[in-house]
Amino acid sequence: MNFSALKMKRLLPATALALTLATGGCSMLPSAPHPEKAESAAATAPAAIVTPDFSLAARVVSVNSVGRFVVLSFPASRMPKLEQTLFAYREGLKTAEVRVTGPQQEAYVVADLVSGDAKVGDTVSEK
Questions:
Q1: What is the CB neighbour count within 10 angstroms for residue 90?
Q2: Per DSSP, what are the bridge partners of residue 12?
Q3: Taking the model in full, what pTM does it have?
Q4: Using an 8 Å Cβ cutoff, are 95 and 122 in contact?
């Protein structure tokens, strides 16, 4: 056996191992989606339905615990009706039920505390 044949015999396993390691990792990577498949998936996906939220939302800006009423601040675009029942929430938990009694001045309205207790900063909504 000559010297170059012996050298080739030693290099062949190392070369085969290096090729296996270099190409074996590629199969673990996620393959890119085929462009035709991506287009067909997008074409068959249902269109998103966007529904605007028109529910009432307010903040408690003042509380009178003796008189059992609160002053609510609404956005100017939508105000509650008289005698409408709303609910006060603090950190996602319902804390009070209020009934709109008036008077109303600009974006502020007075509501009686029917049950529970409210604090300044509580959020008020109809649900």
A1: 16
A2: none
A3: 0.57
A4: yes
Cis omega (within 30 of 0) on the bond before 103? Answer: yes
Q: Is a pLDDT exceeding 80 seen at residue 88? A: yes
User: Residue 63 corresponds to which amino acid?
Assistant: V
CATH code of 96's domain: 2.40.10.170
DSSP, collapsed to helix, strand or coil, labels residue 40 as: helix
Percent of the chain past pLDDT 70, that is, above it, reads 65
Number of domains in the chain: 1
Any domain includes 61:
yes
| Tens-place pLDDT, residues 24-75 | 555 555 666 655 665 555 567 788 888 876 778 899 999 999 999 999 998 8
CA-nearest of 82, 41, 76 to 58 is 76
Residue 88 lies inside a defined structural domain of this protein = yes
Q: What does the mean pLDDT of the chain come to?
A: 79
Strand ranges in 2-92 using DSSP code E only, listed in sequence order: 57-64, 69-73, 85-90
The terminus-to-terminus CA distance of the chain in angstroms comes to 90
What is the extent of the structural domain holding 101?
57-125
Q: Is residue 45 part of a domain?
A: no
**Does 23 reside within a domain?**
no
